[in-house]
Specification:
Helices cover about 80% and strands about 0% of the residues. It has 15 helices and no strands. It is globular and about 55 Å long.
């Protein structure tokens, strides 16, 4: 994995860390499923009129929209509204890193190197330390919803990788047309049609800013880069970078919400970085091997399939 691409993965983790602050602010004005629906409306329009259709089959586009939009983000936003603290949610959600690696191995036959598995496990220990020592709060239902969101994210990574999409941003934008109607239907069933209408027509500046961040920065920029990396490299190389999200999330909460960061958080962050270092080291070695093979005459197509 190129150094520039590793840097991009870190940037995405930072974007997603701040995203939890934006979601928390948005939920002060909007029901969770309405906020989720508006996120994907904004992500789809107007770019859907400007970008070509995805190269992947329609079933992958629809599946990605349903799994990422309705299942993952619907469950996550509902969990945050149901009592899951933003900091703890950013921690529990990263269970997707291990889930993604295991799913890719079982379904796609992507065999992670031992160093990559070790890196994910070490990083997961760091996430566990953060979860225990962060003082975050969650109800049983909100905790289970967040775990479900993590599993859904892992499934979305798998769909993206399996689709063979050549235009990841197009897939992201066009698939964003799928979630709004199911989400608004669910919101009407849960909160009532009038409550949904009042939330949309009475949208505040704070709510608008939250929608703008989660739609344009977190979804289009964050997932746009993430999906491009997933399409280019194996899931085992990319997914572990999400372990940095809680590190940035806690930092953002400290800077923007005045939440304290103590020695436990700093120690756990160091463990996460150590685990990620194992993954990055392995990816660098793979990249060097690929370069050597290229110089020896291995075709570009073969290297693309391998990586």
């Amino acid at each position: 994995m190129k150094a520039s691409h590793r840097l991009l993965a870190v940037v995405v983790a930072a974007v997603w860390g701040v995203n939890f602050v934006a979601i928390e602010l948005g939920l002060r004005d909007l029901p969770p499923l309405v906020l989720t629906a508006l996120r994907f409306v904004a992500a789809a329009v107007p770019l859907v009129f400007l970008l070509p259709r995805p190269s992947a089959r329609l079933r992958y586009v629809v599946a990605y929209g349903l799994v990422l939009g309705v299942l993952k983000f619907g469950a996550l936003f509902t969990a945050l509204a149901a009592g899951m603290s933003a900091g703890l949610a950013s921690l529990v959600l990263q269970a997707q890193a291990l889930m993604s690696v295991l799913l890719a191995a079982a379904v796609l036959g992507e065999r992670p190197a031992r160093a990559q598995v070790a890196g994910v496990l070490v990083g997961s220990v760091g996430i566990g330390v953060l979860a225990i020592g962060s003082g975050g709060y969650a109800t049983v239902i909100s905790f289970m919803l967040t775990l479900f969101a993590a599993a859904s994210w892992a499934a979305a990574n798998l769909i993206m990788r399996a689709s063979g999409e050549k235009r990841p941003l197009s897939l992201l934008v066009w698939s964003s047309l799928v979630p709004p109607l199911p989400l608004l239907g669910l919101a009407g069933a849960v909160d009532g049609g009038q409550a949904v209408l009042d939330a949309i027509t009475g949208l505040s500046w704070r709510g608008l800013l939250a929608v703008a961040y989660v739609a344009y920065v977190s979804t289009l920029v964050g997932f746009g880069i993430w999906n491009r990396l997933i399409a280019r490299y194996s899931i085992a190389r990319v997914a572990p970078f999400s372990l940095l999200v809680p590190v940035f999330g806690l930092s953002a909460a400290w800077l923007l919400l005045d939440e304290p960061v103590g020695p436990t958080e700093l120690a756990a962050a160091a463990i996460v970085l150590a685990g990620l270092a194992l993954v990055v080291r392995r990816s660098t070695a793979d990249g060097n091997n690929a370069t050597a093979a290229s110089e020896g005459g291995e075709p570009e197509y073969a290297r693309a399939v391998a990586g």
